[in-house]
Amino acid sequence: SDSGAPSGQMTNLVQANPDAILAVPSGTQCSAFMTELGNAKAANPDFDPQVYMTATCANPIFFDALVSNGGSDGVYTSSNAKFVLSPEYADDEAVQTFLGAMAAYAPETNAGDQSALAGWLSMELAIYAAQQALEAGDYSRAGIVNAARNIDYTPALLVPGYTTSMDAEDAFFAEGTQLVQWSADSKTFVIAGEVKDYNGTLGTYTP
User: Fold this and answer.
1) How many Å apart are CA 34 and CA 53, to the nearest integer?
2) Tens digits of per-residue pLDDT, 145-158?
3) Contact 125, 151 (CB under 8 A)
């Protein structure tokens, strides 16, 4: 977690020598934890647990630019969005549209930063909800909110095989993910598991 210095937490983990570590930091603490992990592995050759980072850390900038000692190599996380700079999406139409827009309108922004992608996805969904409200004949604040609450739309920048929707009985929009693993050699996330799509099964309510 973010409470306490990562170095102190890592010292305790080295002493415990677990087979696996589940780390739940946020923001730059993601990189701080992996940096301390790299330091610990360098100082303790027998310390080599499987490490999973919370999906809030699933951003290439946290694994690459902010970790210089190899501590992020082999670390697992999960994401339901495409990593737009990964070679596997070089010919992806939605990715190329996104990269073209970023180059044209935000050239100083790192397009590989998942925060930029999150902003794009948020506005894509907002526009879609507004369009749905307009088509339904209720282009008002309430109409847009109702359209968003009952949305059935999967953005093309989410991973293939993943679907998203909400309605009166399902309060969660994002209900799935895919396991990925960071490769220090390729400086990209490598797919490490199948897409898990639980759309319509998690945030459910009985009226």
Assistant:
1) 9
2) 999 999 999 999 99
3) yes
